[in-house]
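Technical annex B. To support the medicinal chemistry partners, we prepared a structural model of the target in complex with IPE, based solely on the information shown next.
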Amino acid sequence: MRRTTTRSGRERAALDAAYQECRRLVRTTRPTEHALMALMPPSAQPVCWALYAAFGHADDLLDRSEEAPGERGRRLREWRAALEADLASGTSDDPIRLALTDSVWHWGLDLADLLGALDAVQRDDDREGVATWQEWRERAHAQNVSWPEQLMRMLVRCGLPVPVRLRDLPGFTRFVEGLFLTDMLRDLPEDLDGGHVWLPTEVLDRFHVTPADLLSRRWTPAVQQLIAHLVGEARAWLESSRRALRATLPLGPAIVLDTTVDLFGAELDAILRAGPAVLHRQIRVPGHTRLRILGPARARAAVVWRLTLPPGGEAATAPARTPAVDRTAAPEFSMATRISEPPLPPRPHRDGARPPEIAPAQLPEHVAIVMDGNGRWATRNGLPRDEGHRAGAVALRDVVQGALEIGLAHLTVYAFSTENWKRSPDEVSKLFAIMRAELLDGELLDHDVRLRWIGSPDGLPDDVVDVLRSQEHATRNRTGLTLNVCVNYGGRAELARAGASLARAALSGEVDPARVSEQLFAAHLPHHALPDVDLLWRTSGELRVSNFLPWHAHYAELHFTDQPWPEVDRQDLWQALETYTHRKRRKGGRVAE
Ligand code: IPE
Ligand code: IPE
Ligand code: MG
């Protein structure tokens, strides 16, 4: 049975019970992780439980001390095969697999990557131990990088443009290593019960500790020094990665990051204080310490999600999607692009608002928007400016859906002007990071949108140029809305380029200067096929056009609204279109009676 968003009451009840079972498992076996999940947006928390319960379950199947190693491996293989079958059918009779299957179907998680992480756990079955730190790191990454990336995917589905490929961010793999080492120290007694020593032989040798010392749980001075060294390493990795990652993550994920480092740091303190007990029982952080860290973090997270996520979160209304996404790698581009084929219908408005009835002939053909006011919106809400740009990206998503719903042909948006280079390098680089994340993982590729980039590559980071070109290429055959994004665009620069091109043509004798007409001039513009702008809309109360589309918007109807761009949604676009239908477009002619 293929799972859809409409479920019977019984199905819904089974699903709720499955998620609750995952939650119970995580809470009882991993209270720290459970507490951290409570910092995620509420609608994303059940998926966190499902993901973590699945991963923990796989790990536990391999760690069962009462079974022979071959037997444990066989059990995990069987469980993984059953999971794959469930994922294909869309349902399961096992609570963890049911919750995970639902998560994958409903949230568009990366199935191949998740199964890869499970395979990495499975490989432990054939392994005796690890020799070097290098080998240890590879094991840590293979098993642990995918899970936090899935959480980022969920934030994207909730409407927050965040980087999904965390592995590309400086400091991220160090962070994973710090978590993995802390987890390993915490789980030491359990691993020793199962006869495993997963610490690299390299570090054991350095401290003259043998696996047998650990397995017999002898608290020698050498073992003590080894533990102290490992605690110090884990702490240093977590702290250095926190510093590196903080600079790139938006506020919500940064709170989760900070609290994770604080809580894992508290675990390391507790491990150090526990002395020989670390070899015998799992060490827990005292309740009052956890509360001191978690209390303020919960309060901050609640406020930040409320301000930075669209109400309700998109995932609540997101259509169920096929988990096996198409990956059409365009040969001339370095980037693999996922694109829904056929495109999904427009996502409904969160309150169910429907577009006004406007006859197609009355609709403007081309609407251009100066999306202004992100910075002021953020400042007014006590947030850094980049949060404003993030919220602005979310607003644009909704406006694009509204344009699709009403059947607009061309929408051009001003995303970065040639004058915007005057801003601080920090704001500019964050803006590009948000733009790139949005283009890679936003919902644009799911719908019938053809993306076109207008602007110059000069000075733009290569990865931004790369993603703009790849997505233009990936969407080139779409026939719905043409969305032109102006990135590094300047109107006068565009006119100057057209002038230069005409001058060259005149010099070569191709063009007679006496015959330069408006049409001929337009033909030398970089985007000569772009239709004239019928309606030019600017938000945030500024009454100017800021070097935007001087040629194409020469006779545009102007529409100015006061709200800052992050507060806009598709209903404001519809309102602008309605206003337009009442304008008398004379273009120099006489008033129609
Ligand atoms: C528009 O918002 C987005 C860009 C120019 C990139 P602003 O960042 O200009 O916001 P304000 O005008 O400072 O409020
Ligand atoms: C125009 O907004 C450019 C974009 C929206 C990308 P600005 O905020 O940069 O324009 P000014 O400085 O107010 O004219
Ligand atoms: Mg502005």
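Notes passed to the chemistry partners:
The mean pLDDT is 89.
The radius of gyration is 28 Å.
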